[in-house]
Amino acid sequence: MEFQIETQAGTGPVAGSEDQLLVPMDDVREHLVVVGNGMAGCRAVEELLARDGTRYRVTIFGAEPYVNYNRIMLSPVLAGEKTFEQIVINDRAWYDDNGIALIAGDPVTAIDRAAKSVTAQSGRTVHYDKLLIATGSDPFIIPVPGKDLPGVISFRDMKDVDTMVEAAGKGGDAVVIGGGLLGLEAAHGLTLRGMKVTVIHLMDTLMERQLDEAAGWLLKSALEGRGQTILTGANTAEIYGEGKVEGVRLKDGRHIPASLVVMAVGIRPSTALAREAGLAVNRGIQVDDHMVTSDADVLAVGECVEHDGNVYGLVAPLWDMCRSLADGLTDQHTGYKGSVTSTKLKVAGLDVFSAGDFSGGEGCEDIVLRDASRGVYKRVVVKDDRVIGAVLYGDTADGGWYFDLLKRGENVAEMRDLLIFGQAFAQGGGALDPKSAVAALSDDAEICGCNGVSKGQVVACIGKGACSLDAVRAGCKASASCGSCTGLVENLLAVVLGDDVQSGPKTMCKCTSFGHDDVRREIVAQDMRSIPEVMQKLHWSTPDGCSSCRPALNYYLLCALPGVYVDDQQSRFVNERMHANIQKDGTYSVVPRMWGGLTNPRELRAIADVVDKYDAPMVKVTGGQRLDIFGIKKEDLPAVWADLNAAGMVSGHAYGKSLRTVKTCVGSEWCRFGTQDSTGLGVKTERMTWGSWMPHKFKIAVSGCPRNCAEATIKDFGIVCVDSGYELHVGGNGGIHVRVTDFLCKVGTEQEALDYCAAFTQLYREEARYLERTAPWIERVGVDYVKQRIVEDDAGREALRARFLFSQQFMQDDPWALRAAGANSDLHQHLDPISIAAE
Amino acid sequence: MTDWIDIGTLADIPQRGARTVRISGEKEIAVFRTGDDRVFALVNECPHKKGPLSQGIVHGHSVACPLHNWNIALRTGEAQGADEGCTPTIAVRHESGRIWIARPAAMQAAA
Fold first, then answer.
1. Contact yes or no for A728/A783 (Cβ under 8 A)
2. How many structural domains compose chain A?
3. Of A227, A824, A383, A334, nearest to A570 (Cα)?
4. N or C terminus of chain B with fewer C-beta within 10 Å?
5. Tell me, what's the pLDDT at A345?
6. Looking at the keywords, is Oxidoreductase present (chain B) (predicted)?
């Protein structure tokens, strides 16, 4: 008997000595050659063997010197949680037992379709009858300078893991470029191995393809809590180093030192081999429903293929593809119909799930459940009574159920109200009404986890006369902390009292069940630092709020965290974002500050020049003693501001929920009736208070005598000078409902007048609701309360004043100067069309 | 046949914000990017009093007009809630990292 000799490389974790595989010449079976010893290639062979174990002679080529292992499990290997042996799917015995020739560590470099053969790197050429390409994906390397430096690696195979483990042994800094699943897994593993890791992510949300913003924020917080530095919205400019990597420079100029850079920005189908062989390749190797390429004897499967326009980077579609492929190879064609994918992952030990379309949109309803104390976020997107998408964070137990509802397109109208609570609740015991579900709970069932309040205690509290949510919160603390049980308490109220429930205070907006005061209290109590954090911890029912709550939250955070909170421009009304007043035709008006209503020739010339230069159709003297330039286009605003800055003028904040003007009369310097230097005090007051953001607009005036020419008694804070000192007035308003101020007190010196002004302003900033002016605020809390805080409590007044002045350190940068210097230029410039393509 | 105009990348538009595009002879176009990185384009005029929608607060898949706070659905251009009116939409393609908008029909006819 003659033998044809093929060689076979070692199949252990290390490339071993070559032994020989003897193939009888009389083995006339068709030869199936598989290019790729990964999850897809081997799974396809497994499926084939399960259908017909003898039909094909099988040879598998692998680029890596290993047996078939589970690539998904590389992360636990990196993290030190598993060994390589533990992630092997098919060991050497499997190849032997099934008569499969494994040629590992010798990648195929060419396919000759005419000769029906493949050639590997070593020069070995093998004939095939059927060829299966399962080359998977290649890591995408971003084309930045330094990408080829030693120490810059990807995270795709066992070799990368070995490199990372070795680098981590030396400690130091690592940078991971890419905040997707792979990048975060690499960062997690490197952190566990003792490196100081910074993740650089181009987008604003981690794993933005799998997670919405809220879930991405939770993930970011959790990872930061483990010591990683996460930079989102960060664009890599270059990787630098002499001879080896030393760090990464971002486009914004920041440098991050690193002895190891892991590039994990994404993968792309590995198609070079197929392309060079002349097979039809688009994004991936094009296959039909039976995984056959443009050549009937060449098949392809896994991440390298494109089926019906789709390329998959997940493992689940691969199983379906391999089934269809094996069916086809054994003449029982079924056909692959594409996959609806879901992602259920543990990212760095944190549970994450997403499926379907969770981008929302017309006709979509978001059902959101946030349980801050458990770190859980769930969002189910329903359209036409059917689940079309879901994102789960922290508790993914029901992911499979939602995915099942989604795939089956089941009508969920019946269980709509309970859907978000999961399968056990929504389908349990036919209790389809939230009220009956609550009624069915036992008396010792816990309602409020934060304060350990049982249903029995809540019911008892209601029985003692609590007939509103607030009363229950006050009476037994249920729902008084994180608020996640608010719905349960409301349902209990409804069950016990029927129609006698009193509705609570008005909520901030439709996005939340909390009122303004609750939100502010919790922001401070829980030290919340961003809008997504507030929305998560306080169970917002919408993904990113609305035009009512976002500006309010932005203000509350800004007020609570001076110098720390980063203002969210997109949560500001147009005027505050553009630092000018929008007019009905879409142009803007510009009001430079005139301290205390004073001006000079230089300022007036600059204003006149701006009017000429930008062809402003109108200039008007405002009620606040300054000049308003109308008809400026948004793209001209930075240049206008630069011209005004050059003459020493800054923003007048005529557009903001902020300190507007300090109106003055001429006072003792000129006026024959003047008792004090009201103009000078007005200038000092404006210098102290300008730039401060407020719940609403805030106007001050200083009159030099009781004739009150500056109209101080219809201002938010008014000072009326008298011979013996300064009378202070608060809470006036000249708007729709004219309200004369309440008299606060009289002080003896200018400094006291300034101190009381600062303290009052801060009390208003801290305690009034957003968009509540001082007049309705004082009517709500009572002027006696304000007197008690400002006049009677010396220490309290001083603390308020100190907080105001501290906050002002961060507020008194002229926003115009920043914009004139180029900040936020995108807000002012149009996008230029770059090119036009017709099709 | 549609003319597609390359107007830049996703990063050129602020998240929960908008940029404007001017094409000569056409009404200004507002291109919006939502919190979940979807891109929509509308004529930059509110159906109510022609307020520049590009300057509004973008929330969910809606924008609140900066003049009178009408909420406009970004996908359809329709006013939400009790308000009635519709702003023309412009087709958007987001491919290979670039944003393309369809040239408005009126201009195509003239071209």
1. no
2. 5
3. A824
4. N
5. 65
6. yes
Q: Which segments of A226-383 does DSSP mark as H helices, in order?
A: 272-276, 316-329
Task: Check whether residue A779 and residue A794 sit in a common domain.
Answer: yes
Q: What Å distances lie between residue A215 and A370, A491, A510, CA to CA?
A: 10, 28, 21
Size of interface A-B (CB pairs under 8 A): 129
Residue whose entry in the numeric block shows the structure tokens 């296959």 = A287
Residues with Cβ within 8 Å of residue B92, at least 6 apart in sequence = B31, B39, B40, B41, B99, B100, B101, B102
Which candidate from A830, A833, A838 shows the least CB-CB separation from B6?
A: A833
8 A C-beta contact, residue A113 and residue A277: yes
Report the distance separating Cα A809 and Cα A806, nearest Å.
6
Count: domains in chain B: 1
ipTM for this prediction: 0.89
**Looking at residue A215, which CATH number applies to its domain?**
3.50.50.60
Query: What residues have CB less than 8 Å from A820, skipping those under 6 apart?
Result: A638, A639, A641, A642, A645
- Domain containing B45 equals 4-103
Give per-residue pLDDT as tens, A731-789: 999 877 889 999 999 999 999 999 999 999 999 999 999 999 999 999 999 999 999 99
Q: Which amino acid is at A783?
A: V
Cross-chain residue pair B73–A837, CB shorter than 8 Å: no
Tens digit of each residue's pLDDT (9 = 90 or more) over B53-92 = 999 999 999 999 998 888 999 999 999 877 889 999 999 9
Average pLDDT estimate for A702-731: 96
Q: Which of B59, B43, B25, B54 is nearest to B91 (CA)?
A: B43
In this complex, the residue of B7, B57, B60 whose CB is nearest that of residue A833 is B7
Query: pLDDT by residue (tens digit) across A368-381?
Result: 887 776 778 888 88
Helical (H) or strand (E) element with A636: none
**Measured between alpha carbons, how far is A620 from A627 in angstroms, rounded to an integer?**
6
Q: What's the CA gap between A461 and A839, in Å, rounded?
A: 69
**SS3 track for A389-407:** EEEEECCCCCHHHHHHHHH
Closest CB to B21: pick one of A359, A833, A837. A833
CA–CA separation, B1 and A709 (whole Å): 68
Domain boundary among A617, A651, A685: A651
Cβ within 8 Å of residue A559, ≥6 positions away: A693, A765, A766, A807
- For A330, the 3-state DSSP assignment is coil
- Measured in whole angstroms, how far is the alpha carbon of residue A536 from the centre of its chain? 11
Verify that A795 and A671 share a domain, yes or no: yes
- pLDDT tens-digit map of A311-355: 887 777 888 899 899 999 988 888 888 877 776 666 766 778 888
DSSP 3-state assignment of A447? strand
Contact present, A36 and A136 (Cβ < 8 Å): yes
